[in-house]
Amino acid sequence: MKAMILAAGLGTRLKPWTDYHPKALAVVNNKSLLQRNIEYLQQAGITDVVVNVHHFAGQITETIQRHNGWGSSITISDETDTVLETGGGLKKAGWYFAGETDFVLMNVDVLTNLPLQQMLAAHSQQAPLATLAVTDRKTSRYFLFDEQGTLCGWRNTQTGEQKIARESAVLVEKAFSGIHVIHHSLLGLMQQQGKFSMVDVYLSQATNHVIKAYDHSGTKFIDVGKPESILKAEALFDK
Fold first, then answer.
1. Closest Cα partner for 137 from 213, 226, 217?
2. Which residues contact 191 (CB under 8 A, 6 or more apart)?
3. CB of 231 within 8 A of CB of 14?
4. Residue ranges per domain, the chain?
5. Using DSSP, how many helices (H) and how many strands (E) does the chain show?
6. Fewer Cβ close by (within 10 Å): the C or N end of the chain?
7. CATH topology of domain 2-236
C-alpha cells in the first residue's frame, strides 16, 4: 500500500515559524512533523509515500534527501507554482497510485496514535469509497454521518452553513482528523479542477457512494496548527 502526505500548505496559523520554514518541518521533541508521520506510516507497513510541496519546498526536499527518507521511498509532487489544496493536490499526484486498490491520505500537521492497521482493516471489510478518521472532539466544522456511520453532509457551526448530500433522520457530528483511506476509484470520479478541497469531493460523491467514518475517539490526537500546540504535542508525543 502507498500513502500521500499533504505538506504543501502555507501554515499561516503556525507563524512565525512558517515565515522562514514549511510547517512540515516544525519540530516536536527533536523530530519534524514530516518525519513523525513518515514513521507513523511505517508502523502500518507503508514505506512508499508521495509528499506534495509548495511553501519553502526546497527545505522539504533537501531534508528528505539528507535523511534518506527516514527509511521510506519518498516521491515529491511539486506544487511550487500553485498550491492546490487537499483535493487538487491529490488529483495532481493521482498517477502515483496506479495499480493500487486503496491508499492512505493524511495531513502533515496531525499527530496521532490512531491504530492505522485497524482502520485499514475496517475499510477493507466495509469496502466504501473512502473511510474518514473522526473523533468526538469540539471544533467549528463537522462532517455529518447517519447512525450507521455513513457520510451525509457537512456543517460549520460558526457560520451556520450546512451542506446535505444524503438524507437522514439523524445527523451525527464528527470532527475530521485529516486521515483518509481511499479506494482508487475515487480518483476517476473527481470532476473538480485546479484548487479544491477533499471536503467538496466527498460531499459531491456522498449522494451516490458510501463514505464511512472510523471513530478513534480516545486515542492521542492533535492538530499541530498553532505555536502553542507544539508544546501540547510534545507532552503527548515524547519520543
1. 217
2. 204
3. no
4. 2-236
5. 7, 14
6. C
7. Spore Coat Polysaccharide Biosynthesis Protein SpsA; Chain A (3.90.550)
> Can you tell me the distance from the alpha carbon of 165 to that of 147, in angstroms, rounded to the nearest whole number?
15
* Mean pLDDT for the stretch of residues 199-214: 98
CA dist., res. 202 & res. 190, Å (int): 9
Q: Which residues are CB-contacts of 197 (< 8 A; sequence separation ≥ 6)?
A: 85, 86, 87
150 secondary structure, DSSP code? B
**This prediction's pTM:** 0.97
Residues 93 and 51: their CA atoms lie apart, in Å, by 9
- The three three-digit cell numbers of residue 212, written as one number: 464511512
Q: What is the mean pLDDT of the chain?
A: 97
Cβ atoms 96, 83 nearer than 8 A? no
Tens of pLDDT along 87-134?
999 999 999 999 999 999 999 999 999 999 999 999 999 999 999 999
What is the amino acid identity at position 10? L
* CA distance linking residue 132 with residue 145, whole number of Å: 11
Cell numbers 508544546 correspond to 231
- Cα–Cα distance measured from residue 204 to residue 181, given in angstroms and rounded to the nearest whole number: 17
Q: Tell me: the pLDDT tens digits for 38-52?
A: 999 999 999 999 999
Q: Look up residue 23 and give its three cell numbers.
A: 510547517
pLDDT at 54: 97
Record the cell numbers describing residue 190, joined without a space: 473527481
Strand segments, DSSP code E, in the chain are 2-6, 27-28, 31-32, 48-53, 73-78, 102-107, 110-112, 130-135, 141-145, 151-156, 162-164, 172-183, 211-215, 221-223
